[in-house]
Amino acid sequence: xxxxxxxxxxxxxxxxxxxxxxxxxxxxxxxxxxxxxxxxxxxxxxxxxxxxxxxxxxxxxxxxxxxxxxxxxxxxxxxxxxxxxxxxxxxxxxxxxxxxxxxxxxxxxxxxxxxxxxxxxxxxxxxxxxxxxxxxxxxxxxxxxxxxxxxxxxxxxxxxxxxxxxxxxxxxxxxxxxxxxxxxxxxxxxxxxxxxxxxxxxxxxxxxxxxxxxxxxxxxxxxxxxxxxxxxxxxxxxxxxxxxxxxxxxxxxxxxxxxxxxxxxxxxxxxxxxxxxxxxxxxxxxxxxxxxxxxxxxxxxxxxxxxxxxxxxxxxxxxxxxxxxxxxxxxxxxxxxxxxxxxxxxxxxxxxxxxxxxxxxxxxxxxxxxxxxxxxxxxxxxxxxxxxxxxxxxxxxxxxxxxxxxxxxxxxxxxxxxxxxxxxxxxxxxxxxxxxxxxxxxxxxxxxxxxxxxxxxxxxxxxxxxxxxxxxxxxxxxxxxxxxxxxxxxxxxxxxxxxxxxxxxxxxxxxxxxxxxxxxxxxxxxxxxxxxxxxxxxxxxxxxxxxxxxxxxxxxxxxxxxxxxxxxxxxxxxxxxxxxxxxxxxxxxxxxxxxxxxxxxxxxxxxxxxxxxxxxxxxxxxx
Amino acid sequence: xxxxxxxxxxxxxxxxxxxxxxxxxxxxxxxxxxxxxxxxxxxxxxxxxxxxxxxxxxxxxxxxxxxxxxxxxxxxxxxxxxxxxxxxxxxxxxxxxxxxxxxxxxxxxxxxxxxxxxxxxxxxxxxxxxxxxxxxxxxxxxxxxxxxxxxxxxxxxxxxxxxxxxxxxxxxxxxxxxxxxxxxxxxxxxxxxxxxxxxxxxxxxxx
Lengths: 623, 207
Known about the structure:
Chain A is α/β, with parallel strands linked by helices. Chain A is about 35% helix and about 15% strand.
């Protein structure tokens, strides 16, 4: 990553290309909060920050990251903020104000959208944020462009004194492709003292200056080197592509054999759109197909441009159903849409069986402490007069809404919202709502946005229980450090924050329980559910995957075939059916329980649950 | 640069989160990049470590710039770490030229263990994989890995089998060299054993 070998060809992931681009741009400052699909970027930056003499941090949340980057810009530093679509929304106030006052040192925001919601709860389209805040936005179409666009965006940002957003999508972030390396600067960008009369202040009259910048950028984007056209001089059919659409389109055109009659205009300048370039290409065109990820943003803007010039063009894309309204672009739906546009057809294929194959539902890993937590929680709640209201939050434990977590929660909104949804229900228990109210959050989410909600709920003495599922990890996104881990993105050891002390510091009671101590924790949860006011229980047990990365427990868990009663037992396959750990499988030949040695990590909880005592644990507690 | 029989050459690698899909695709992709080909890889993993289906598309060309996803029916090789996932990908991506190497050891979805879903009949499943492809080689990769001492080496065993396929772009020697570059000491030794047994598993069948 830090090799100064201009011209060398590497195989690079999109996320790595962002890192390399940032190094070639000589950044001074980088901040992020992990969010898939761009979670890996800041971690990689953190590893090389000392060597390349810049600062990188995993911020407590995206607003901290975004505002820190704006702050760095005041000292003429080049700053890079990396977020996913939700993170950009979370920091929306900061970027709207930031766009109005502008920046000094170059500031680039990388936002990663997740079409098809591979690792998200939604398919939000970041482009609306650029349009709403009047921030220029670029979208690369390949790994090479992803790398090259970072220094280009910094240069653009400094020239226009405006922040620049680079929009990526999952296929770029998690894809790999060939990248030709550029030169690394000898040292990072030159910073400057903050002058007495330097100003980055958001005031309403700066709106006109901001709009002037947009006009300037629109002109500039007419000649952006990343906008391409391939095809005949005056096509009747034109494809306009953004992001991933270019390469899918290019291949489908080739496969359909329509390259001599269809034009492909690929636009990297998502906002503001280069109107003159677009008008030039629309001249004489009868039909336009737009290829873009998520919403028909480009399609509607093209319609507006064509409409305001009285052009008679038929548009197709996401809006008219030529492409699906939800889900990502792929080679098949793009080829179908181009087939509709041109009438050309691909050769028929033999169709495989349409009989549905069973899907593989996501579940907690073998040995995950969350499985034990929700198993105990649901057991206790079922014994209450009413089944209780459980509010979820964002993290691995979002799977507790499914079979993995006993279908535990009834509501889950955005990151950090659980405490506030629950606070309302907790208050309503004073007004006739006769239910126990529980919400859960992870340790990273606790610092991210639970804290203000906890202050609110504690101050107003809501009747509820907050369970902090403290697994010492930001597990869902790949084990990034957070304030309770005692380590920073740059690898420095720092004093970890104690969640229990933080809770007690705001005047709220906090207890700690071990989800693997099933009997004791059951009693604790029951007691706290029946304690009026705001209660916090920290469920402490490290993430199973984190543990297995360190060292596997030297424990063997197995089923004693002589003790297991199999189908004949009254437990109705409790270990595999109800407990539901991937390690607890079933030997369908002998009709007895079986523990898969490949999957089992030796937590031993199932041994505590088996009514016949057939599951045995051999060996010491931990290696 | 050797001429490719198919250009682009499309390889699908599929399985379940945690089985080493990404490493396998990265090993093949870097080796082809070093040989001067253009490579594009698409990884579909989402919440990868939580037991869901995962797949990688590896695409190799002499001169074309490719998207990271393979069009359906256009795979030339499918490497499968689990039979149900192999069948899922075979139905979508296999064509008349596709060769498949896969581990026939099922990993049951949660729903099967809970009695909500039924895992397909293993023989029928293997027969369908064979029928939809030009050739299919079941290789007990997880068993091989456990035999040599670490279940995590299953991906390396399957990569060994992959080098023995007729249209494979990488030879046994190519991958052996990569192993020595990537691993050291006991881990290298273990992976080398798994790799050799993986190679032998396909060779035996052809003999």
